[in-house]
Amino acid sequence: TPQGSVNAGTSPRAIGIGKNGQSLYVTNYNTGGITHFTRDTSTGALTYSMSYVTGWRTPIAMAMDPDGAHYYSIHYTDHKIKSFDLAASDGAPSGNGSQLDTGFAPTAVVMDPTGQFLYTSNSFGDSVSAFKADAKGILSKIGSDAPTVKGPLDVALDPTGKFLYAVSSVSGAVTVLSVDSATGAPSPALVSQGKI
Fold this sequence. Notes:
This protein has 196 residues and is mainly beta.
């Protein structure tokens, strides 16, 4: 049974909950914003906190680090990944100035269990981009984009962080890439490719 609803802003696209469960975030695709809510952990009720304009269009997906200190959004039409600081007091987002190019038309992002590495699926780039995040959430690019089958739409990491998977509805296949545990770089060569 629905427990009620709150306005999520214009064209909400992705949703995530902060580490301590006291914050909830929504990306607003058409306005390029992030809507932040505080959350009652006992009842689940949401209270609007703020809307933050990212400076880039079409935020389509998000990831948060395991420490709950940083938030990362990817932007479909601007081909960007952007980093934000999350306030320790209430989880409110603020820009930290770190942003980098992804491959063409990113659609999904995933962070490894250590909170060091991020990966984006690039739907029109037929590739995966890899990034390293330092303790302050500042991003750096890891090598060249790793090729995948045509049109990857989503990515997933296995629990060990040693293998990266990208799925494509266009190709009807999953690309499997090995990941260097020291550098976070995905192998540029396909480990295997299975037809769905």
